[in-house]
Amino acid sequence: GDSVTQMEGPVTLSEEAFLTINCTYTATGYPSLFWYVQYPGEGLQLLLKATKADDKGSNKGFEATYRKETTSFHLEKGSVQVSDSAVYFCGGDYKLSFGAGTTVTVRA
Amino acid sequence: DTGVSQDPRHKITKRGQNVTFRCDPISEHNRLYWYRQTLGQGPEFLTYFQNEAQLEKSRLLSDRFSAERPKGSFSTLEIQRTEQGDSAMYLCASSLASGREPFDYEQYFGPGTRLTVT
Which end of chain A is more exposed for a tag (fewer CB within 10 A), N or C? Predict the structure, then answer.
């Protein structure tokens, strides 16, 4: 069935380090793909999205490119801040649902 | 519009009792989803509605679970004869399905209802 597989954490980084979280999907078609973020004590918020192959979603310095050939949607940020500490979820529409989440901790 | 709201935010119940949760979606959204999230896991799809029609249910949704969206606005999720394994965060999300591309169905999540079954 349709699903996403997300890199497991936790991930601990120093400020200004490069972050990448891998996400791959299995689907019969070409679903829209999303990254959601959950800050401590808060609900899930959409971080970025891409609706078709080769689309690049970006927000708050994060980027992810929809790669049809590798069925991937990896999340990247070039220089993380302490405020980026959160749990990140890769997902698609409801059929893909969500990955297990990657907990990212950024140290000052 | 203040977004998706859920009530209650926390519920503690004894095993065997029935519980009901409410979700109020963003007013113009026609799709409403229920998910369950346990510690360390991502949200697991339970069911979704388009307007008042329940279009799909996950196999996770046992016959003790029932969801309704009678007027295509708010929705309720009822769990009968609760079990300790039902303890989880229950999330509601809504989206606007326009029927036109791109079919991205970006979902907006509520804060969740945390259920603890003792």
Answer: C
Question: What whole-number distance in Å separates Cα of residue B39 and Cα of residue B89?
Answer: 8
Residues of A in contact with B104 (CB under 8 A): 32, 34, 49, 51, 93
State the Cα–Cα distance between residues A32 and A49, nearest whole angstrom: 7
pLDDT band at B104 (very low <50, low <70, confident <90, very high): low
In one letter, which amino acid is A24? Answer: T
Residue B31's nearest CA partner among B82, B97, B91, B85 is B97
Contacts of B48 in chain A (CB under 8 A): 94
CA distances (Å), A98 to each of A11, A88, A92, B95, in order? 18, 10, 7, 16
Which tokens hold the place of A37?
A: 């973020």
Average pLDDT over residues B91-104: 76
CA distance B72 to B31: 9
Residue A20 has pLDDT above 70, yes or no: yes
